[in-house]
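S., here's the first fold you wanted:
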Amino acid sequence: MSGQSPLVRQWILLRTLSGRANGATVKALVREMGVSEKTVRRDLETFEKVGFPLQEEVGEHGRKAWRVQSAPGQPGLSFAFDEAIALYLGRRLLEPLAGTVFWEAAQRAFRKIRTMLSPGALKYLERFGAVFHQTLVGASDYSKKGELIDQLVMAMEERRITHITYQSLQATEAVTYDVYPLGMVSHGRSLYLVGWAPRHERTQHWKIDRIEEVEVTPLQFQQPEGFDLRQHLAKSFGIFHGEGEIHVKVRFSPTVARYVQEGRWHETQRLTRQPDGSLLAEFDLSAIEEIKHWILSFGKEAEVLEPERAARRDGRGTESYGARLHARRGPREMNRQ
């Protein structure tokens, strides 16, 4: 287990302690975890610092053991029935992590919830859960990518230079890249790796589905100063990212205005209803690939006003509102591959 990432190792250690009513000695944890005593003690200190209810107790013959317990005055960890329902419904959102230790832990937690419920309550819960359904159209399947995802998580945590073998959508064969892994993004029911590509000297995105192999090297990289994953994607309309500064303004017809107004499409969106029932939508973006396809999906019900009106004409010479976006792009457009 010494090759595991610190996050995965600590997760397993915490799970081990949580399952031992009488606790476990450091020596026992060292044997089970397959790491040094120094590593185990450092992880235990980390748990204490972040406030986990962890305590070292002295038992018979001076035997010291660590165990997880409730803080003074606080009840043990339990869930109300409505909380159990929420967990049942919410766990489906973890499906992009299927195959990883986090998904496995969620599955175990749900099984425990089931054992705590009476047959009648369980029947109601299952019936209530059936009211909600999450479509799987276009969803990625990561059940066989668990080890690969764990390797990437380790590389991110330890800032290790990583080789990934990747086959892009347009490529006929896979190519190996040197990558400095910086984070992961869940978008459109799929996971994407965000990393610095030293070969191209820019930040790029790789879809996890298309990564065939991962090799984490012992070499470390220096994370870009001030890099923040959320800020990195703040002006992306999805997963595409660019360095441009593009103001997009679209008029939606009264037919689709309410639908657009009901959604949260981007952090910078400004939606203004017009007297005629139409809707003006404005966005400040760094790239236009994804919003272009989104706008075109509305056909004649959407009209692009900015950055420039590029309405195409049909064979009869009449104007169509299925406008195509044209905009100035930044010097280094960074797209997902």
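And the second, which I think is the more interesting of the pair:
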Amino acid sequence: MNILFLKLSKIDNISSSRGIYIDLMRKFSKEGHSLFIVSSMERRFNGKTQLIEDSNTKFLNVRTLNLRKTNFIEKGIGILLLEYQYKKAILKYFPNIKFDLILYTTPPITFTSIIRYFKEKDNAVSYLLLKDIFPQNAVDLGIIRKNSLFHNFFRKKEIKLYNISDYIGCMSPKNVEYIKKHNPQLPEKKIEVCPNSIEIIENTNEEVKSTIRQNYNIPEKAVVFIFGGNLGKPQGLDFLHNVLLSNNGLTDRFFAIVGAGTERAKIEKWFSSDKYTNALLLPILPKKEYDLFIKCADIGLIFLSRKFTIPNYPSRLLVYLENKMPILAAIDLNTDIGDIAVKNKYGFWCENGDIHTFNKYVDFYCQQPEERKQMGLNGNHFLKNNYTVDNTYNTIINHFK
């Protein structure tokens, strides 16, 4: 098939990099489909719209306004202009292509006119990979007010996107329930579980793990808890401060925080003032370097703001399970990421803010090495059975059989 994939952040290579979208596109490519991947070339990179061809994949990077690391006004205008800019570029660079499948993600929620155009022109099937429920997530975090002008504007766009989609792939069962409950106009058959997934790479040996710890001055015998990725408001990271303070000085545990985001400066201040003896803060690492560093860890941490009413399902879970690490999640009461971990015996969870329960599980992991190892194996087994690109690919492609 000819597959049009619309993505916000730039993609210009699927052969040597990794990620939930890159891995999925690589799977489609290996199965013989022709890919037309459209993503943004933000103006801060000083580049022009460009077309890159690699075997059966074409990468169209469209020059746009800045969509990240910019002010709210430019980002808002940039998102609204996106579908016009993408559509214009697609018609210019792919004028004679008949698309069979349109894949797209949230964010953003502003691709409706592109999708409608190619559905009508090519009779294409449209499939939404739902990764973000906006604008409700912004309401939950207090960024916009419920029933405000902004909220109503974007809610209408969200509904249009759902309506134009032939299928909506959700990250978890709770996501499916939420979309059905809050969008009763949608036929139930169009909504299904299509989770975050990766192409699995087998773990390295214990010798590599030991070397990495030595390189970063991490104690050899400590149980290492890692939190990697975005450090922003959605993660509810004030609770992380309580975790670090309440465990400071304990030699059997070590906390590694890796990443960047709006809360990064706040966390840097904690490290400057509190003088942790068993914690490390690293900047965001290139994907390959992070995939290597994480191999020195024992437990994967997941944080979500307790304010959320939507069921988030962070993709950072996948690399934890890939590396045979159980998880410990401090989350809201609406996501099912913790319940699924407990049910399948690869992790524990508590509500974000419950330091007593959280530290009880930290103690368990430090004191029960055999149980910890078995839980890591359980998680890796669950990953292989549920969260591989083969699963996601088959879920999507089954609609063409």
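Why I say that: Residues 87 and 241 are 45 Å apart (CA to CA). The two ends are 13 Å apart (CA to CA).

Talk tomorrow,
H.
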